[in-house]
Amino acid sequence: MGFGAAGLSGWSLVAPGAPQEGRDLALIDGKTSVRRLGGDRGVFRDVRGKPLTAILRIVAAQIGAALLMAMVAFWVSGRIGGISALLGGLVCALPNGVLGLRIALASATGDARRMLRATYVGVALKLLLTAALFAAVFALVRPLAAGWLFAGFIATQAVIWAAAGLTANDTGTVSRDAAASR
Fold this sequence. Notes:
The protein contains six helices and three strands; from the N terminus they run βββαααααα. By secondary structure, it is mainly alpha-helical. It has one domain. The protein has a three-stranded antiparallel β-sheet with strand order 1-2-3. β1 and β2 form a beta hairpin. The longest helix has 29 residues. The relative contact order is 0.20. The N terminus is likely disordered.
């Protein structure tokens, strides 16, 4: 199970009894590996990784995408479109950052159950925060170009789909095990 869709592409867990049992797995960022600790417990630990680095890269790329979309919107439809697109991007990037940090903090313990619990709670928090930010933007920002707001949100969310490329190792390649975990 990969956490790429949840905002943390640098981690993968293998279910107990999976074919990979008993060997190290290279992860999407190519700098982290997970070692199976034994038995059918399904417990893994980070042996040399820095998941926070992957999170920061993704969130930075999302903010960059939001700024790029804001510049396009500003050029096409002026100040209101630009501000709306930027707000849409921030509505996406901020909750993703909160989710990623929550998972990174839980991953420091190396306890897979704690990471999984942090992921579930973090995803719920991300959804609530996203809804609250959209509500706040619609309630507080006047005038607002809703089309540009959603375009900024979608462009920023698209960075997650490209996250595997952002977290590839220094040679730009993704290991075979990491590619199979997606």
